[in-house]
Amino acid sequence: MSIVTRGFRGRRDVAPDLPPGQYLTHDFPVLSAGPTPRVDHDRWQFTITSEAGARHTWTWRDLLALPNEQPHGDIHCVTKWPKLNTHWKGVSLDVLFDAVDTGADYAVVRSYGGYTTNLPVEDLLDGQAWLVYRYEDDDLTPEHGGPVRLLVAHLYFWKSAKWVKGLELSDNDEPGFRETLGYHNYGDPWREQRYTGD
């Protein structure tokens, strides 16, 4: 008689290059805080609103006309799964910020469907953040945030807002949806900043 029950698999795969408390997965789970918005390309827009109220708006065609990049790397979910070596296509926020006169320290990211999250502006610049519209050579599906999501891979993935439609810049930090529910205000996976107080 076995002392280990059928189905017991022990600890999940742990890779030495993962942040603490994360366990390797090979799929791409879909987690959302509400219904999946369906946004057609012809009505999608992205707007950066400066702290002075100036608005800069790009349509889907505008976005595709901008220089694109193909960022790749690992992503980390607060629910403890990472996905390694992901490949995306999109536009660096550095390109969009070239048109914006701002000295703001913070941004609130707004999404179709009402989701929000907050980030320091410095985490959106210097090749750290993109508006991505393709994943692994396919258009980004609505379930994974299409037509366009934010990608800020160095923070937990809830900061990479799906269905993104804009940034509002401010001198003051304003917690977003998950942050007001007790998630960490910053969300660094290497420091295990999952919840308030971590």
UniProtKB/TrEMBL annotation:
InterPro entries the record matches: OxRdtase_Mopterin-bd_dom (IPR000572), OxRdtase_Mopterin-bd_sf (IPR036374)
Pfam families the UniProt entry points to: Oxidored_molyb
Residues of the Oxidoreductase molybdopterin-binding domain: 34-177
Name this polypeptide is given: Molybdopterin-binding protein
Species this protein is from: Kibdelosporangium phytohabitans
